[in-house]
Design brief:
alpha/beta; Rossmann fold; GMP Synthetase, Chain A, domain 3; 12-stranded mixed beta sheet; 4-stranded mixed beta sheet; binds zinc ion
């Protein structure tokens, strides 16, 4: 049965991508025996068959791997444009483009002039915002929720007036209600936006600017299902596993792919955005660690270094106190030295105790959130 049987548009798009994938992709030709019974594809199975799914297409992106084995993805120019249109439409909901400062992981390339790498100390980030406001009229900030929290706390301590900020954008990890209330306390006149995105799908949903406990789904491009443990759709208000089909990705198809996140079923009452909606989303929590010099450091840069260890399949870093860490890893080989050297590069030192635990799987926390790092210090 088509999982979208009661939604004609979704049902026809789903049937179409299933037919294309079965006809062009060696993995899907085998995986989907019966187009009326398409199995759910978990991340582990996807990764085990990643080369066959890519089917010779160049890799454009890969996931961070903290929530599981890194997934490699091919994105056609058409798909990239479709995602770009969604972003533009979302910016329209917010009221158009504003001069922005980005505080994000900038990779190994030189960041754009309005971008500061997330590894910069918080004071430097605050000074950067002030400087970009002076030079370029910046009145918006985009960053990770964990970093936004550090930023507002420090701005408050320093007594810096950031009242000129009119928009704060949060993405890249789960947004908690306390993130939004803290940001509102420092930026009282700012609109806070956030999106639910992944490397596999780009923007999946955007928080409703009018009813912030709901997210509107990019349903023209993606089929989103919320399923219980038996694979049946959950009822309104219930929490379900997020399973997504990308109607447009023909180079590395994702059909009934289980992201590993959870979300509440729900229907936004705003009446202003015609896209269907879901409620709150429970995904990855990046977190922050404590440096020997007293700084809180967002777990982004170290995360990428750990991800890039070739044998790494999954990881989680727990900091018990300043000098004591437990690193849980899923890896077929011993990678103690590589893990230590990631710490050395990231912190500038290897903490006194780094216990490395080899496990089969790293479970999610209560409520379905995956904590990439946990700081008890
Ligand atoms: Zn809405």
């Amino acid at each position: 049965m088509n999982p979208f049987a009661d939604r004609p548009y979704a049902a026809s798009r789903f049937a179409r991508i299933v037919a294309i994938a079965r006809g062009t992709n060696p993995f899907y030709a085998r995986w989907i025996e019966d187009p009326d019974h398409v199995p759910i594809l978990d991340r582990r199975t996807y990764c085990e068959n990643n080369d066959e799914i890519l089917n010779g297409h160049a890799v454009n992106d890969r996931t961070s791997g903290s929530t599981g084995v890194p997934v490699r993805v091919a994105v056609s120019p058409d798909l990239a444009r479709a995602r770009g249109r969604d972003t533009a439409r979302f910016v329209g909901w917010l009221g158009g483009v504003l001069p922005v400062v980005r505080l994000i992981y900038s990779g190994h390339s030189r960041p754009a002039e309005n971008t500061l790498d997330i590894g910069a100390p918080i004071d430097e980030q605050i000074d950067f915002i002030l400087m970009r406001h002076r030079l370029a009229g910046a009145v918006a900030v985009t960053t990770y929720p964990t970093n936004a929290e550090l930023l507002v706390r420090r701005a408050h301590e320093r007594g810096v007036d950031l009242g000129f900020i009119r928009r704060v954008g949060l993405y890249g990890e789960s947004v908690e209600p306390h993130h939004i209330s803290q940001i509102r306390s420092i930026f009282p006149s700012a609109t806070v936006w956030s999106t639910y995105s992944s490397v596999e799908f780009g923007m999946i949903a955007a928080r409703c600017p009018f009813e912030p406990q709901y997210h509107h789904v990019m349903a023209h491009r993606l089929g989103v299902e919320l399923l219980d443990d038996r694979g049946a759709p959950v009822g309104r208000g219930e929490r379900g596993r997020v399973v997504i089909t990308d109607y447009l990705n023909t180079l590395s198809p994702f059909i009934r792919y289980e992201l590993g996140d959870y979300a509440d079923a729900g229907s936004c009452p705003c009446g202003r955005i015609s896209l269907p909606s879901i409620g709150e989303v429970y995904g990855k929590v990046r977190g922050a660690l404590l440096h020997r010099d007293g700084r809180r450091v967002v777990f982004a840069d170290l995360s990428v270094r750990l991800r890039d260890i070739p044998e790494m399949r999954q990881y989680q870093v727990v900091q018990h106190d300043i000098e004591w860490f437990t690193v849980r890893v899923v890896s077929p080989a011993r990678i103690d030295e590589e893990v230590r050297s990631a710490f050395a590069v990231h912190f500038g030192y290897v903490p006194e105790r780094v216990n490395i635990e080899y496990v089969d799987e790293i479970p999610r926390g209560p409520g379905g959130k995956f904590h990439a790092s946990i700081c008890e210090a």
